Amino acid sequence: xxxxxxxxxxxxxxxxxxxxxxxxxxxxxxxxxxxxxxxxxxxxxxxxxxxxxxxxxxxxxxxxxxxxxxxxxxxxxxxxxxxxxxxxxxxxxxxxxxxxxxxxxxxxxxxxxxxxxxxxxxxxxxxxxxxxxxxxxxxxxxxxxxxxxxxxxxxxxxxxxxxxxxxxxxxxxxxxxxxxxxxxxxxxxxxxxxxxxxxxxxxxxxxxxxxxxxxxxxxxxxxxxxxxxxxxxxxxxxxxxxxxxxxxxxxxxxxxxx
Length: 258
Hints:
Helices cover 19% and strands 29% of the residues. It has 258 residues and is of the alpha+beta class. The chain has two domains: 2-101, Photosynthetic Reaction Center, Chain H, domain 2 (Alpha-Beta Complex); 156-248, Photosynthetic Reaction Center, subunit H, domain 2 (Photosynthetic Reaction Center, Chain H, domain 2, Alpha-Beta Complex), CATH 3.90.50.10. The longest helix has 12 residues, at 132-143. It is globular and about 55 Å long.
């Protein structure tokens, strides 16, 4: 099932034995274009705590009940690694989360290469005992955040730059719940092509300029204007995706194993 991830904001997050909070944000890998973490607002249940749930533990969103189920118990979440509400997510903490819950950091299919998948924290073997400088470097690496881990909420609104000019801004992320991969970027073109919304697959992304909040794509404005129209996410089925991918010359997701 494809859905716009921003509609999940505020959904109740339901463990197997009760609710643990609401959807606050999602963190994605900008190389594999996969959602890696759900950020849960636990409210008064775990005040001052940030709870992260790996994509492999997420169920199918239920729009009617405004719920996102997770394959966890409240006790598991309550006893998990402690991350402060405003504390950055370090590589070391990610490793603690994988170890505590038994999650596989390489879970899920990546359409952009195995090398793009998240890997558990590991350092190259050293001959003999590490010296003080090596130990300091190892500690610094462990305390850093993965530079490819990005917030959906923060990146929404970035300008989209075609090869011959700007076409609009990033309005939404269209995600497939089966693997929690980002299938398309929803672009609002109103400042250039009024009243239109288009879908751009990550295959087209050439570069992301984080400082200037721009996403550069390798297609032209004319290609965008002649692409199959998309009035709503409900019309995006395999037939539509085949037309869209054929128009741009992108590989088809339907060829990949699930």
